[in-house]
Amino acid sequence: MYMPKREHCEWIRRRFETPGVTEITQQERKSILQRLLKADRLEDFLRLKWPAEKRFGLEGCEALIPGIQAVIDTSSALGVDSVIIGMPHRGRLNVIANVCHKPMKQVFTQFKGLGMADEGSGDVKYHLGLSHEVINEVTGQPVRLTLCANPSHLEAVNPLVQGKARAEQFYRGDVAGEKVMSIIMHGDAAFAGQGVVYETFHLSELPDYTTHGTIHIVVNNQVGFTTDPRVARSSPYCTDVARVVNAPIFHVNGDDPEAVHHVCKVAAEWRAKFRKDVVIDLVGYRRYGHNELDEARFTQPVVCNKIDRQKPVMKQYAEQLIKAGVVEATIFDKAMEDYKISLDVDYQNAGKETHIKNEDWLDSPWPQSFFDSRDHATIPSTGVDKALLAYISSKFAEEPQGFALHKGINRILNVRRELAGKEIADWAMAEALAWGSLLKEGIHVRLSGQDVERGTFR
Q1: Residue 85 near residue 145, CB atoms below 8 Å
Q2: At residue 85, what are phi and psi to the nearest 5 degrees?
Q3: Would you tell me how many other CB atoms lie within 10 Å of the CB of residue 260?
C-alpha cells in the first residue's frame, strides 16, 4: 500500500482479509435487493414516461443507491445525525427519490414544465438540491440529509459541501465531526480532470478547513461524455489524485452489490475511526448515452454492444438470491409490481399540480421565509451607536501588551490612533468597524485566505 502509517494498513487488512469478514446477514441481502429494485425500476419508469427528457440516468451503476444508503446506515449507527451531500448530475434524481426520500410526486412535477408558484427562477431537475429529515430504517434514528444544489453540473460543488459541513460543525460545537459529515459523489472523468477536486483534497486536513473526513464515491462508468479513459488521463485509475492525502481507495465491482455494501460500511467505519477522507471507486458502466438524447454508438460502438448483452445488476442479484432461497420469486415479483403501482399513483397526482414550488427544493431552508417576515417598503436600521464605533476604533489601534512590535507595525498603529481621534475611517478602519460591530453582537466572523493573518489587504 502507498499509505505510510502501519496502523492504517493493518486496520484495512483486517476489514478485508479476516476470514468471514465480508459475510452479511440474510436480512441485509433482502435490504440490498429492495434498494436495487427501487433504483432500477425508477430509472426504467422515468425512461418510459419521458423518453425525450434529459435525466442523466444511473443505469449501469445502480449499486450506488444501496451503497450510499449503507454509508448512511453505518454512520447513523456511529452517531452521525446530519449528512451534507454533493454530487454531479448522474443519478441525482435517483438519489433524491431513493436516498433522500423526497416525495415522488414532487420529483415527477419537475418533468411537467410548470411555472413557479413562488419567487426564483429554479433550475433543471438534475441540478436541484434539498434538505430533508428521514428516520433511518436500520437504526431508527433521525438523520438530516442535505443535498446541495449544483448548477455548475460537475465538481464545483465540492468546496461548497465542505464549507457547509464545516459551518454546521462549528455552530453545533461538533469539534471532531461526530455528528455532521459530508459525502461527495463524483464522475470518473471529472474526478481525474478537474482541478477543484485536487484543491479540495488539500483542504481536507488543514486545521481550519477540515470536516474530519469526507466519504468520496466515484460513479465510474468508464467514459467521460464520449472520451475513453486512455485519452483522458495519464494515471492508471481515475482516483489516483486522492493519493496526495494518502486516502484509502477501494475499487469495487458495481455488479457485485454485496461487495459494494461491505466496502461502503468499511468506508464509514474508517471515517469514524480516523477522521480522514476515504474514496470508493464504484466501477460500472453507462447503459445509454451521456444523456438520454445522446447516441453513444457513434463513438463507442463496441462497448455499447457488450453493454447490451450485460444483464442489469438488479436482475443478476435477484436471480442469485432466488436461487439461494433467500427470497421467493413470487414475493420479488410482487415487490416490483407494488413499487410500479406506487410510482403510477405519484405520477397521476403530479399531473394535478399547476405550479412548482421553489421552497420544496432548498438545500438550506430557513425556519421562516425571509421575504415574508419583513416589510418590503421598510429599510431596516443597520447602524450602531457612535460610542461603540469609538470603542472598536480605539481597540483597533491598541498596542498588544507584552509584545515587541516591529517598527513598521508601530507606525500603522499610530496612523490608526490618529484616525480614531479625528473620527475618520479609511478602508482598513471601516473594515475593522464592520467586523468589530458584528463580533460585539455575537456574530461569528471568519477570515479566510493566504494573506489575511498579516492584514495585507487592510
Answers
A1: yes
A2: -120, 135
A3: 30
Residue 99, φ and ψ in degrees, nearest 5 = -105, -50
What's the one-letter identity of residue 361? W
Residue identified by cell 425500476 is 41
Q: In what order do the strands lie in the sheet with 130-135?
A: 130-135, 142-147, 82-86, 180-187, 214-220, 278-283, 249-253
Strand pairing category for 355-356 and 249-253 = unpaired
Q: For residue 173, what is its C-alpha cell?
A: 460545537
Say if pTM beats, i.e. exceeds, 0.85: yes
Do 111 and 50 contact (CB within 8 A), yes or no? yes
Instruction: Report in angstroms the alpha-carbon separations of 29 from 40, 269, 395.
Output: 16, 20, 64
CB neighbour list of residue 124: distance below 8 Å, 6 or more residues apart: 54
State the cell numbers at 314.
438488479
Distance CA 66, CA 63 (A): 6
Residue 98's nearest CA partner among 141, 68, 56 is 68
What CA–CA distance (Å, rounded) separates 400 from 337?
73
Cell of 268: 464509514
Segment 74-106, tens digit of pLDDT? 999 999 999 999 999 999 999 999 999 999 999
Most distant CA atoms of the chain, gap in Å:
87
Q: 183: which 3 cell numbers?
A: 459525502
Residues β-bridged to residue 145: 83, 132
Question: What would the pLDDT profile of 120-141 be if each residue is shown by its tens digit?
Answer: 666 788 888 999 999 999 999 9
C-alpha cell at 453: 493573518
